[in-house]
Amino acid sequence: MNKKAFVDTVLNNGSLPADGFIPVDFATSSDGKDFRKENGKLVKDDVKAAKENWKKAKQELGKEQVTLELLTSDNVFA
C-alpha cells in the first residue's frame, strides 16, 4: 500500500503517512528527544517478506484461507 498516496488522496487532510506505531511529536525521552526522530522508520514495507510470512502463518494454522473482519465506525472520527 502506498501510504503517502493514501493520506494525500483518501484522507486529504494534511495527515502524514505512518512509519511506526508512535507518531512524530508524541513521545519524548527524559532529555526531551522525540522518540520517532531518534528511532527513524520502524515499519518496513517489504512485500516479499510479508508474502512469505503469510504463507508460513497459513501453514502453521493448517488453513488455506483466512477470513478477516474489519470493524469500524461510521462517524467523523472513523
Describe the overall structure.
The chain has three helices and no strands. It has a domain at 3-45. It is mostly helical. The longest helix is centred in the C-terminal third of the chain and has 15 residues, at 47-61. The radius of gyration is 17 Å and the shape is extended. The model has no long low-confidence stretch (mean pLDDT 88). It has helices at 3-11, 35-39, 47-61.
Short description:
This protein is about 35% helix and about 0% strand.
- Compute the number of strand runs: 0
* Gross geometry: extended
Separate helix tally: 3
Class of secondary structure makeup: mainly alpha
- Which percent band covers the strand fraction? under 5%
Q: Tell me roughly what share of residues is in helical segments.
A: 25-40%
Q: Please compute the radius of gyration using only Cα atoms.
A: 17 Å
Straight-line distance between termini: 19 Å
* Major pleated sheet: none
User: Which H/E pattern describes the elements?
Assistant: HHH
Poorly predicted ranges: none
Mean pLDDT equals 88
Keywords:
single chain; 78 residues; mainly alpha; 3 helices; extended
Q: How does the SSE layout of this entry go?
A:
Elements: H1 3-11, H2 35-39, H3 47-61
